[in-house]
UniProtKB/TrEMBL annotation:
This is 4-hydroxy-tetrahydrodipicolinate synthase. Signal peptide: none annotated. Belongs to the DapA family. Pathway: Amino-acid biosynthesis; L-lysine biosynthesis via DAP pathway; (S)-tetrahydrodipicolinate from L-aspartate: step 3/4. It catalyses: L-aspartate 4-semialdehyde + pyruvate = (2S,4S)-4-hydroxy-2,3,4,5-tetrahydrodipicolinate + H2O + H(+). It comes from the Bacteria. It is found in: Cytoplasm. The keyword Nucleotide-binding does not apply. Pyruvate binds at T49, I207. Homotetramer; dimer of dimers. It comes from Pseudoflavonifractor gallinarum. The keyword Secreted does not apply. The gene is dapA. InterPro entries: Aldolase_TIM (IPR013785), DapA (IPR005263), DapA-like (IPR002220), Schiff_base-form_aldolases_AS (IPR020625), Schiff_base-form_aldolases_CS (IPR020624).
Length: 296
């Protein structure tokens, strides 16, 4: 499956857990089928929303293998193989490639950070080592560092780097890097609340948390915009804005898992340090979902 020119809604899929904290593969299969039935354009596993930071390498491999088999080539499967250790990111990327994923999401080196050249080499080293497309992941609110405009410019021409998930929330930054977009280097909004402004800057869609609970709606919103029906796209963006904001009342993916459980999806809980959503934010999320018709 070609992961080089994806347009539309890419769900940043949660990882469901059993009560004992182990991965619930049966539920993962149900979620994958749910997205395939609702026209999600690609599936991202093991990203921030997938809680990969608390999963073992063996669990990561098992989730990759299961997802690739379940999807069976119907949509692209992208796996988050990022690490703050470049060597580890190479190892994970090569492992996921062998397991059959169609593309990789590569995060900036958090905690130890780096200088400009180190940032460039962090991504280039992985892109040189694998044979599947790579998407950069800029999320400074999580990592404490950002990919500079100059590094984006340099990486945008690498033949194996096909895009960037831009999740800084800064339209100013997005505008600066938009000048490097091309048919071979795409941008995806990493923030559900500004999908349409990002698309106005040339984004090809969204890597979405909200798509976990609104797969058809996010798909339709993006494709309405791409097909020129801006009014319909805007109506969807605004109709679900309070729900989207509710999904970030506490750290992701706590609220989105709570939302799925409120919908009866039974995706389980979290791994520490993540824990149950506080009652006030939980009530606010439920109210937003009820008002938007997501909950009856």
């Amino acid at each position: 499956m070609n992961a080089r020119h994806i347009q539309g809604s890419i769900v940043a899929l949660i990882t469901p857990f059993h009560p004992d904290g182990s991965v619930n593969f049966e539920k993962l299969g149900e979620l994958i089928d749910f997205h395939l039935a609702n026209q999600t354009d690609a599936i991202l596993i093991l990203g921030t929303t997938g809680e990969s930071s608390t999963m073992t390498h063996e669990e990561d491999d098992a989730v990759c293998a299961y997802t690739v088999e379940r999807v069976a080539g119907r949509v692209p499967v992208i796996a988050g193989s990022g690490s703050n250790c470049t060597e580890t990111m190479v190892e994970k990327s090569l492992s996921f490639e062998r397991l059959g994923v169609d593309g990789l999401l590569l995060i900036t080196p958090y905690y130890n950070k780096t200088n400009e050249e180190g940032m460039y080499l962090h991504f280039k080293t992985v892109a040189d080592a694998v044979h599947i497309p790579c998407i950069l992941y800029n999320v400074p609110g999580r990592t404490g560092c950002s990919i500079s405009e100059n590094v984006v410019r340099r990486l945008s021409v690498h033949p194996n780097i096909v895009g960037i998930k831009e999740a800084s929330g800064s339209l100013s930054y997005a505008t600066k890097i938009a000048r490097y977009l091309s048919d071979d280097f795409l941008m995806y909004s990493g923030n559900d609340d500004i999908v349409l402004p990002m698309m106005a800057l040339g984004s090809s869609g969204v890597i979405s948390v909200a798509a976990n609970i609104l797969p058809r709606e996010i798909h339709d919103m993006v494709w309405n915009y791409l097909r020129g029906d801006r009014a319909a796209a805007l109506e969807t963006q605004l109709r679900y804005l309070d729900v989207i904001n509710g999904l970030f009342l506490e750290v992701n993916p706590v609220p989105v898992k709570e939302a799925l459980n409120l919908m009866g999806m039974e995706v389980g809980g979290y791994r520490l340090p993540l824990t149950t959503m506080s009652e006030g934010p939980r009530a606010a999320l439920r109210e937003a979902m009820e008002k938007a018709g997501v909950l009856a």
